[in-house]
Amino acid sequence: MEKAPGGTSVGVDDPYDHVTRCDFVTSEGKCRWAREHGRHDPEFANARSADDFRCPAAIAPDDADADTEPEWDWADCPHFRSRNHDRECVRCGLEERRMAHSDERPLLEEHHLSYRDGGDELSHEITVFLCRWCHAKIHQSWARLDDDVNPDPEAIAQREQRRSREESELGFESAADRYDDS
User: Fold this and answer.
1) Residue 81's closest CA among 35, 113, 118, 54?
2) Residues 84, 128: Cα–Cα separation, whole Å
3) Are residue 49 and residue 38 in the same domain, yes or no?
4) Which of 12, 44, 16, 17 has the alpha carbon at shortest distance from 31?
5) At which of 55, 82, 109 does a domain end?
6) What whole-number distance in Å separates Cα of residue 111 and Cα of residue 15?
7) What whole-number distance in Å separates Cα of residue 42 and Cα of residue 79?
């Protein structure tokens, strides 16, 4: 199993199994990284530009019906990044409830699935969201990302407390009712 720099588990054998698409690939299968950040790697950007910025690891919608395989795997791209943007735990499905103007600890935490071999620096950024209860279980090396589990009872209680406060804030109380001096 893949390990974090501190030696704890990340909960998967192959981080790329949990990737659907690179964050820099457009819906047309083009590489946005080469167009927007190419000055950081001119050789890569020039190669992508010569190929009309086509991403060799993605299949464009036009090619979706064809039985063609991409030229590269996601791991072959030097500028690959995949961050999960769904605000729910990928392990248990707990949804985030954030309170505006609150410093409370979030229910969800970003979890890195890949690290550079032998160092603290990240290689390809592959992240998912985990509730803090699942996150702790995975780093304690006794849980896996693809376990079929329900949210922890404490996690549900925290979410419901936040939802109750959120609903009470949405309630309407007129100024006359709020400041009634009688």
Assistant:
1) 113
2) 5
3) yes
4) 44
5) 82
6) 11
7) 12
Give the Å distances, CA to CA, from 2 to 8, 56, 77, 111, 144: 9, 26, 20, 13, 11
Euclidean distance between CA atoms 123 and 52, whole angstroms = 26
Q: Within this chain, do residues 55 and 95 fall inside the same structural domain, yes or no?
A: no
CA distance 41 to 34: 8
Indicate the residue type of 179: Y
Q: Output the pLDDT for position 66.
A: 57
Which of these three, 23, 56, 82, is where a domain ends? 82
> Looking at the DSSP assignment, which residues form a beta bridge with residue 82?
126
Per-residue pLDDT tens over the stretch 59-111: 765 665 556 788 888 989 999 999 888 889 999 999 988 777 778 888 999 99
Residues 158 and 102 in one domain: yes
Tell me, yes or no, whether 60 and 112 share the same domain. no
Sequence-separated (6 or more) residues with CB below 8 Å from residue 52: 30
145, amino acid identity = L
